[in-house]
UniProtKB/TrEMBL annotation:
Ranges where the Activator of Hsp90 ATPase homologue 1/2-like C-terminal domain occurs: 22-159
Organism, scientific name: Micromonospora inyonensis
Stored Pfam families: AHSA1
Family matches, as InterPro entries: ASHA1/2-like_C (IPR013538), START-like_dom_sf (IPR023393)
Coiled-coil intervals, chain numbering: none
Protein name: Activator of Hsp90 ATPase 1 family protein
Amino acid sequence: MPVTDVRHDLDNLTLTITADFAAPVERVWQVYADPRQLEKVWGPPTYPATVVDHDLTPGGRVTYYMTGPEGDKHAGYWLVKSVEEPRGFSFDDGFADLDFNPNPDLPVSGNVYTFTEHDGGTRATYVSTYASAEALQQVLDMGVVEGASGAINQIDELLAS
């Protein structure tokens, strides 16, 4: 299992997930840079993603929806802030309706994904920051730790293929 540590900090409004992969930084980067690879790991195993738009450049937008076991669809978007290929990128991640209009009733997180060499492979650090402790608690209650961990743990299989 790639996920080695999960910490949420209500004082600093952050959720940090650390994962280790037995692949070079450049290969892990490709998982996020290629929308077809991203679809295989964005979303937990029972909620596979479909990436609709994928512009992983500063100012770009990524849109996606996840399809649940009952056929229910849940949409979201990224607003890309910065990109330092292959070392990482930052983006705002929000919930949306099926036309990809932001849902103002659900939290938006600011995310920084960093990929560094570690023990012959890659250590990925995923940091999400929320506007308030209530917003962080809301996504924790929605199962973000289990969902994100399940999604990240799918990356090993993709890297091995």
